[in-house]
Amino acid sequence: MASILLAGPAAEPLTLVEAKAFLRVEHDDDDLTIAALIAGSRIHVEMQTRRALITQTWRLIRDGWPEDGRIFLSPSPLQEIVAARVYDGGGETHDIDLQAFVSDKAASVIAFANWSMPLPGRPVGGIEIDVRVGYGDAASDVPEPLRQATRLLVAHWYENRSAPAGALPIAVTPAGVGALIAPYRMQSL
To answer: What would the CATH number be for the domain defined by 2-53+138-184?
Structure first.
């Protein structure tokens, strides 16, 4: 059960201008560093919550169809199913009609009638489902607590960017970040 990023976000949950205002930075000397910290903070929040903040396209790869007819997405939240295919024994792909799936966007679950799905002809990675996930295309679509968590991480990392290698301050998550992202965490089964 692998998930592969096909198309990353076209934007970040914070703009460079927003981050610089939060950091109270008025010069352009650190723009590249701040932009990298914004991307890093987004990735950190996404990994902690198992959610995509900005719209992204992912490929879910499965060996077989789950017996219960449900695929739980990670990352979430689900926007739409883009494509689905199954591989036959010769390695050729066969598209699956997307009408065969029911998208539960609230739970980020793809449901289907298990008995109606074509069986993969290869034992490993025989099923691929491409999905679009995320809160939306713009930073304003991201829930404010998750945006604030990214702000706090950017500020912490920016202030501690000169810490010596192996020093503790950069490794410690700023106070409040855990509380901000806690309601959005997806628990693993």
So the answer is: 1.10.3230
